[in-house]
């Protein structure tokens, strides 16, 4: 259960959202090992709050169905998990699979269609069973389990203002980074980068 003392561990995957200095939004999937900003962990009922955001993105929220929006852009792959996609022979093959999934969902909204439909970036945490087993293909530097890499990008951007005001308060905020330039978020930097909430 999430709390201020929570630490990442295998078996529980959490999704949280953050906004950059321009108000662009990214979805962070912790893949068991990624940190979650302390400003979010300090929120009362944080799991429910994060679930509300995820439900809204999936368009499964009855409470906020009048606020659902579509940006009608495209999903662009940036980097990808060497571990998750090891059976694929090229980035073109992976991209074809992702685009097929975007088309298949149609009226639904999934992680693969979040950039196209919702205008948000998607970051994944490096995972695997042991250090070095997974790394982001397309990045030349070193990464560790729990570091986040930019997996998918939108062509038409949403902003935090597109979200209902009540949900915006559950989005972490950075005054420094720009998701269009930010390929890697190192685990040790999470609390420094995302040190406040959207208001």
Return the structural class: alpha+beta
User: Roughly what is the average pLDDT, rounded to an integer?
Assistant: 92
Helical content (DSSP H or I, runs of 4+) = 10-25%
Biggest sheet descriptor? 8 strands, mixed
Instruction: Supply the number of structural domains.
Output: 1
How many β-strands, per DSSP?
A: 10
**Number of distinct helices:** 6
Instruction: Indicate the proportion of strand residues.
Output: 15-25%
How far is the N terminus from the C terminus?
Answer: 25 Å
Low-confidence runs of at least 5 consecutive residues = none
Radius of gyration: 16 Å
Order of helices and strands: EEHHEEHHEEEHEEHE
The 3D shape can be described as globular
Plain-language structure description:
- The protein is of the alpha+beta class.
- It has one domain (15-197).
- The protein is built from six helices and ten strands; from the N terminus they run E-E-H-H-E-E-H-H-E-E-E-H-E-E-H-E.
- The chain has helices at 38-41, 46-57, 91-105, 114-118, 165-168, 190-193, and strands at 15-19, 25-29, 75-77, 80-81, 121-125, 136-137, 148-154, 172-173, 184-185, 196-197.
- Strands 1, 2, 3, 5, 7, 8, 9 and 10 form an eight-stranded mixed beta sheet that branches. It has a two-stranded antiparallel ribbon with strand order 4-6.
- Strand 1 and strand 2 (25-29) form a beta hairpin.
- The longest helix is centred in the middle third of the chain and has 15 residues, at 91-105.
- The protein is globular.
- It starts with 14 loop residues before the first strand and ends with a strand.
- The mean pLDDT is 92.
């Amino acid at each position: 259960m999430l709390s201020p003392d929570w630490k990442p561990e295998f078996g529980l995957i959490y999704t949280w959202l953050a906004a950059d200095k321009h108000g662009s939004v990214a979805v962070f999937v912790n893949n068991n090992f990624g940190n979650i900003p302390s400003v979010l962990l300090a929120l009362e009922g944080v799991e429910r709050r994060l679930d509300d955001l995820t439900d809204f993105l999936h368009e499964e929220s009855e409470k906020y169905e009048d606020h659902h929006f579509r940006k009608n852009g495209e999903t662009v792959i940036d980097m990808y998990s060497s571990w998750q996609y090891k059976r694929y022979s090229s980035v073109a093959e992976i991209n074809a699979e992702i685009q097929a999934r975007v088309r298949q969902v149609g009226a639904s909204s999934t992680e693969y269609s979040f950039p196209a439909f919702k205008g948000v970036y998607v970051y994944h945490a490096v995972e695997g069973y042991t250090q070095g087993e997974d790394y982001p293909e397309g990045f030349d530097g070193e990464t560790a389990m729990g570091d986040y890499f930019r997996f998918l990008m939108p062509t038409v951007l949403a902003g935090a203002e597109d979200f209902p005001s009540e949900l915006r308060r559950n989005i972490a905020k950075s005054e420094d980074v720009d998701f269009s330039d930010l390929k890697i978020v190192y685990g040790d930097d999470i609390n420094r980068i995302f040190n406040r909430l959207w208001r």
